[in-house]
Structure formats: structure tokens, C-alpha cells
User: What shape does this take?
Amino acid sequence: MPLPTGNVSWPPPYLKPALDSMGVWDTWWSGDPDRLEALYGAGSGGFGPDPKPIQYGTGVMGKIARWWWGTPTAPGERRTKLHVPIAGDICGGSADLLFSEPPKLTVEGASTQKRLDLLTDDGMLATLQTAAEVGAALGGIYLRPVYDKKVADRPWLHATHADRAIPTFTWNRLSSVTFWRVVHEEDGQVWRHLELHEPGRIVHGLYQGTKGKLGRPVPLEDHPATAGYAPSVDADGALATGYDGLDVSYIPNQNSRRWRCSAELADLGRSDLDGIEPLMDSLDETYASWMRDIRLGKGRIVVPDAYLQSNGPGRGASWNPDQEAFAGINALARGDSTQLTVAQFAIRVQEHRDTAEDIVNQILRSAGYSGQTFGLGGDAAVTATEVKARERRSMTTRGRKILRWRVGLADAIHALLAVDQEVFRSGISPQAPTIEFEDSVQEDPLSLANTADVLRRAQAASTDTLVRMQHPEWNDRQVSAEVERIQRETGMTVPDPMQLGDVP
Assistant: This one.
């Protein structure tokens, strides 16, 4: 699929449902109350857009428009809405389940393995953690190798967000993708950089258009953001990657529900936040109601004006019973009374807590996670087996995601090694690695030590096996060094005198 040549609509209209949904998920994930109010059309106390007229309607559409975040703020009132950032917690928790520990990447050939270890040590885990969180929020993530000889002497993986890509799938496999970004915007003119990735090459294009139209193609030299590509591309704007396959991998978060009947959108993936937006809206409403009870529950003392002391001309009057909160009313004092009226509203703590807890549990259950993953249900010390039993739903979701990440990450590493060989002449053999995800739940060190002691006394495991059990994150060199130290300290390296033979 070549780059567009005419003044077409941008982004393509068929992507609008997906981009609109990603915009909703991104807003919840960001946790910005201003964006939430703008999304659902509410005013913001005079500082934001005017409320939509449909929100005042009594029909079905009016009810749909009146989410709690879309309810207009009453005239003269300040905004008191409160947001609970549970969407960010869910997406961050998903990334932690996958990449709290670096995955083990293994390839054939000592030189290739050594080079891969060097490439993966260069901040790749942080990239994968970020990619997993963004993918959980938007429904998927793109991984591709990039390089800049002015920045580093090796390539690295870059995560491109799903709302800035136009993919083409062939039998649920990514066959090509166009990334786009706005490089300049001024006086209604929008300059966009398009980057088409196809097997074996990348095609760059610069377009000058408007907000809704791509516009006309212009030379790459016309803007500083793309001028650096001009000397390297051919007449078609293409740049060879040195890799026969597609250098971009797409990792869907979960199977899509919304667009399963759409040929263009069915393979985009599904966000962890898909379908739980109304519950998150209700959770915010619950906490805002709780805070409203606290504000209204502040103790107030109401006294007649006759009890107030004048503070002088133009300075009003006051009454100071140890200077607690009070308010005056225009009423006559009764001759036989020193009556003071105390206003103290009840704060419904238990009702709000129970409601919020039930909504949170429903949100996590619908997103595919256990409450224990997010600290619900206490932090009592338990074994790894008990943790897995309590977090079974989260572990099941993690397993489903690993199935997709293992394939996509292997393709991305293969492309990374190919680019490294093509550009930096590293002398390696590009190949897809074998990927092993580490267990996200670690055993207690004391429990591991007891297990190792039992295995040692039963002569059921070697020193090498026991060291690997205690330190699963160590590589072969570290394990061998530790085994040698243990054997030296315990005297296991001393020759057995019974095996020395006859002494002359």
C-alpha cells in the first residue's frame, strides 16, 4: 500500500470508531478531570466549554449524555468533582504483572547471545514496561527498532502508540503500517510526517494540509523534522531496512469485542478499560458524594445577631466561643434563653465505603484482575503458592497476554538484530529469540533456603541447581562463579585422598 497522493481525509474515516474509543480510554487513563469534563461535555464552573443542550433533555439521548462527569456544574457553584485514578492503576498493574522482571532472551551462537545481552541491557526493560502499560490502555502497542548514530552506537526498541498508526492486517497478521505525527501547525496549516513500513523498506513522506485533510505531498527538505531523511531515501522516499520481513511488530492487548465484525478493525485489540467506563464514572460519583458529606458535616454554631459583638463601624460583628465555626442569623433573642443552635450533619462513612469497595471489585473483575493484585484484602505474608491462588484471575489474564507478547516481542528482537547487523556491522546472525517470562511472584528467601536445604540433604539436586533456584535472575557466568565459591569454602575442591592411588 503506497503513501497517499491526493488530498484525502486524515485520519482515514474507517478508523474513526477505533480512534474515538482510544480517545475515551486515554482520557480515563490520564486521570485529568478537565479532560473528563471536556470528553463528556460538561462545563467547568465557567472556565471550560458550555454544557451541551442535550444534557438537559429528558429523553434517552439526554440520559446517555448525562454521565456524572457530564453533569453541568450549577451556576454559582464551584466544581467539587473528584476523580479516582483507578484506570491508571489497572494499566500500571498489567505492566507490572508482565515485566516486573526482565524476560529471558536466548539465541543460538555465543557472539549473537553476547550482542543481544548488550542490546537488551540498554533500557529495554523500561521500554517494555511503558509499552505494556500503554498497550493495556489503548488496546495494543507497536514495537520497532530505531537507531541514531549520534545518540548511541547500537539500535534500540521504540514503542509507538496505537492511536498514531494506520495498520493493514492479512489474516490477523500485520502486513504493513503507516505511522504519522504532526510536526508543525500554524495558521490552520498542519504539516504531517507519514512513515510507511513494508517488508524490507520504510517510505517517508511529508504533507502540508489542514486539520481534517492530509493535503499535498511536499519535499522532505521543507521541514527540519524530516530533512534528515532526505539524503538517505531513494526517489520514492524509501529506505531499505536490511531485513526481509516487516520491521514492526504489533502486540494486541486482548481480543477485540467492539469491532469483531469490521475487517479493518477486528485485529486492533481491546483495552483493559473497555466496558468499565460507566463503573469508573460511578466510582468517581461515590467518592465525590463521600467528600460532599464531609464538607456538609462540618460543625456550625448558629447564634442570634444579638449575641454578636460589634467590631467597629464597617467592620461587622462577631462572637467568639473559643473561636469555633459559627454563623449569625437575623433573629430576636429570647429573654429566658441563651440558646445556641448546633448544625452537625451525619457523615455516611460506612455506606460510602461499602459502595466504593463493591464498585472497585466489580471494575477489577470486569477488567480481568483479582483485588489482591491491587492490595485489596490485606497484605498478610503468605507463600507464593497462596498468592497465586488468591490472584488466580490476574494470573490467568497475565497468561493470555504473555501468549501475544511472546510472539510480538520475538519478531521485534529479530528485527532489532537485523538492523544491528545491517547498520552497525556487528557480525551476528539475526534470529528470533526464545523468550521465557519470569514468574511475577517470587518465593520468600527463607522458604527457598529451607527447600534447598532439604534437597541438599536428600542429595536430590546439585549445587548448580540449588544456586539457580535461589537466584533465578543470574546468568550462567554468575551461577558458575557462585558454585565455585561454595565448593571452595566447603572444601569440596580438595582431592579425595581415597582416590589418589597408591603412595610410592
About this structure: Confidence is low (pLDDT under 50) at residues 42-51, 322-326. Residues 1-23+87-92+100-272+403-441 form one domain. The radius of gyration is 32 Å. Residues 153 and 424 are 8 Å apart (CA to CA).
